[in-house]
Amino acid sequence: MTITSTLLGLLAAALFAVAAALQHRVTRAVAHARGDAPGRLLPVLGIVRRLLGSPVWLAGFCCNVLGFTAHAAALHTGAIGIVQALLAVQLMFALPMAYARTGRPPSARDWAGTAAVCVGLAVLVLARGGVAQTVRRGPLPAVLVAAVVLIAVLLLLARSRSGQGVRTALAGGAAGAGFSTTAVLTVVVADQLAARGPVSVALDWPVYALALSGLVAAVLAQEAYASGGLPTALTAMTVTDPVLSWLWGALLFDQAPPTGLFALSALAAAGTSIGAGVALLAHSPTLRTVSAPLAPTARR
User: Fold this and answer.
1) Distance between CA atoms of 4 and 10, rounded to whole angstroms?
2) pLDDT per residue over 222-237, tens digit each?
3) Which parts of the chain span the membrane according to its record (predicted)?
């Protein structure tokens, strides 16, 4: 794991956080005004035209594009498990944006959550940062099928649940699974592009699977934004994505999978610290104050 890939990963996380804040405001407001029934599958598809007509939403889309570019570069130069774990800092970047909107400074809970995430990431980088990464070392099609099945299960569960918070978390988890799949395919396609050039990439299936995966993950993210608060949606994504990315990376890319008590203990400690920090930030009053639907946006 290089300093360059770490910085690119942090830049991507910042851009994704800005995109999430902008798009959630519009998507949640429009969906709230429309009042879709909870049992409907992917009701966000019914408001796509209104989202595309919102300058705020489109600004978030541009941030997403820039974030993906930085993210792809980070994945090409670093290990997928660590790069995806860096996305956990999205909630940290969301704090100053919440402060800018409300004037409410971060609380002690926010600082504690931020410290826990940083400590967990530091332990993860120290434990796995020097592990070399290969490409397509494992069963890529099987991983993609497993991800599709998981996303389908989460969406069906979300459709059957009446609680808003549960639906938002399940939709966010499905989006996180989609983003983890997109990260896997980004690693494969970037390696193909560097090794064999664009013509070879265009003739192979992973690039088209990447485009489809990215589109599906983006739609699922909007579904999570439409169904509830930003902290719940973003937390589900930032927990599911790194966990699944670490699993896929260990199966496909890690030249030396973690073995031994020390390596496994370090990973457990890093995961616990990051998870605790994300949980603290997710329940932050600072972030919850910016999650309510905005009536002016809903009239677009």
Assistant:
1) 10
2) 988 888 777 778 778 8
3) 55-75, 82-99, 111-127, 139-158, 170-190, 202-221, 233-253, 260-282
